[in-house]
Amino acid sequence: MIRLVALRLLFGVLTLWAASAMIFGGTELLPGDLATAVLQNSATPENLAEMRSKLGLDRPPLVRYGEWLGRAAHGDLGVSLSNDRDVVEEISPRLWNTFLLALFAALIAVPLSICMGVLAAIYQGGIFDRAVNVITLLTISVPEYLIGYILVKYLSVQYDLFPSLANVSADTGFGDRLWLTFLPMVTLVLVVVAHMMRMTRASVLSIMASPYIEMAILKGVSKPRIVVLHALPNALAPIISVVALNLAYLITGVVVVEAVFVYPGLGQLMVDAVSKHDLPVVQGCGLIFAGAFILLNMIADVLAIMSNPRLRRPR
Prior knowledge:
Order of helices and strands: HHHHHHHHHHHHHHH
Structural class: mainly alpha
Radius of gyration: 24 Å
Distance between the termini: 13 Å
CATH class of the largest domain: Mainly Alpha
Largest sheet: none
Number of domains: 2
CATH architecture of the largest domain: Orthogonal Bundle
Low-confidence stretches: none
Mean pLDDT: 85
Shape: globular
Helix content: over 70%
């Protein structure tokens, strides 16, 4: 078990290193000249040469990547080009906002999707199963930004139940924060519930075809009892994996949702930084997104191994 966990950690570190190289290379390929974007109207040849030297753009990309990666490993993501603030200080409050929004959505989406998946498996082929499958198929097919705009149109503009903009700050109280972030939370819940519910249903139904389940049915055990006590525990491995992937999406895939509701999270910060050519902020946000996604996937792998003894057997 320790060996498997150590291997997962090693693969996670290697994946994060590969992601950091892709993030740095991607920002290098962004159109436009960074020095020109910083200087704007004062971009004379002399000023451009001085700014390129200051930003290190006159050095080879591999050298700059090595220095950036070394500083990032020690928690130094550089300085923002737009306001000369430390990137870590710029990111920290935005990361906290994104984490709170993701936590709010996860506390509703995870239990709701698992309960709906279990009920759909219990009443397979029934009205509830068909209705839930149609609704989840619709939410999977519709982009999250369109779901957000539909919620704004009806719940904010037409009926004035919730605010269309999630204007939260450090001084916003807990109750006010929940009210202001209700629409982006519902948008995220509708997007991720479908995947988790369908995987829960499919995993439980695959276990229901096992011989020991058929024996329990022949003994007269009720179907809800069979599903909850016998099928669900043995179907946890794929369910945990899809839950972890969707939790990672709640943190790393909120860029569009935050942009729709102008929510001051990490995704909105990254969008603003791209428009300003603020590469240190873009690189810092990308590295945090990649780290969160890889960490949640490693946790999912470990939990899946712990929940299924067959995965712990050496190969």
